Every structure is written in C-alpha cells, then in structure tokens.
C-alpha cells in the first residue's frame, strides 16, 4: 500500500510542479516549440474537459471527481491483491486528484503538452496518468476476458 501511495504522491507533486513552472514561465495562451512539428509546451487554462467540452461546468467536474475518487478507492480496496488493478487505479486516482486540485484552487485546469503533428487536446501530467491508468485497466480486463 505504501508503494502505491508514494507513486500517487510523486505523480501529484510532478503534476503540480510542472503546472506551476509552465504558468510562471510561459505567457498565457501561448506555446513554445520543444520538438519542431511534434511537441510544444503551452500555457492553457481549461475550465472544461478534453476539447473544452462542458466548459464552465465546474460543479459537474467537482461532483464527478468526488464520485470517481470514491469508486476508485473502493475498487482499489476490492482488488487489493491484484498488482495490475492497484497500479492502474493508483494512476487514475493521482490523475483525478491532480486536476481536482487545480479546479479547487483556480476554477480551471492548467494544460501544457501540445502535440503539433495531430489535432489532439492539450493535456497535462495528470491527464497522462489517468490515460495510462485506463489503458492498463483495459489491458487487464481484456486479458481476463480471454481466459
């Protein structure tokens, strides 16, 4: 349990530090190229979800985040003997908390990673943790279905 809590804390700290660094060093609504035609670092305030869906509906995100965190904690406990489930849920909890902290503090989420080779939503460390957690969970579930 301690290892998973430590992992979640590391992700949260990295997420918040990166968001602070971007906000402090890159002008709002601008970006700086890191790898030409591949990746830029932007400073975007997102008060919605991906592609700014449900923009301005902070109450919705508060409720969904609290419910999701409750469910994830329940399933973490339920599947506490399965390392794959625990890892995936830990990543999802850390990602949810990282964006939830932003919404509580600022009323928006700071996003920064911009893919320049495809039209994809600008995202952050918390989003990455959430996505990787979901992918791991899907792989586990699909493998279980094959048995």
Structure, briefly:
The protein is an alpha+beta fold and 147 residues long.
- Give the mean pLDDT: 93
Order of helices and strands: HEEHHEH
What is the rounded distance between the termini? 28 Å
For the sheet with most strands, the description reads:
3 strands, antiparallel
Query: How many domains, in number, for the residues?
Result: 1
| Poorly predicted segments | none
Helix fraction, binned, reads: 55-70%
Q: Describe it for me?
A:
This protein has four helices and three strands; from the N terminus they run H-E-E-H-H-E-H. With 147 residues, it is α+β, with helices and mostly antiparallel strands. The protein has one domain (2-146). It has a three-stranded antiparallel β-sheet. Helix 1 (2-25) packs parallel to helix 3 (83-106), helix 2 (58-78) packs antiparallel against helix 3 (83-106) and helix 3 packs antiparallel against helix 4. The longest helix has 24 residues, at 2-25.
């Amino acid at each position: 349990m301690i290892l998973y809590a430590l992992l979640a804390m590391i992700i949260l700290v990295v997420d918040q530090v990166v968001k602070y660094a971007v906000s402090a060093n890159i002008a709002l609504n601008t970006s700086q190229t890191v790898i030409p035609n591949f990746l830029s670092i932007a400073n975007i305030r997102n008060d919605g979800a991906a592609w700014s869906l449900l923009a301005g509906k902070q109450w919705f995100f508060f409720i969904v985040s609290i419910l999701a965190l409750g469910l994830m904690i329940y399933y973490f406990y339920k599947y506490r003997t399965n390392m794959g489930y625990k890892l995936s849920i830990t990543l999802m909890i850390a990602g949810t908390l990282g964006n939830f902290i932003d919404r509580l503090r600022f009323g928006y989420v700071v996003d920064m990673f911009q893919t320049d080779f495809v039209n994809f939503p600008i995202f952050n460390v918390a989003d990455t943790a959430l996505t990787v957690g979901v992918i791991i969970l899907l792989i586990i579930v699909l493998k279980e279905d094959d048995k």
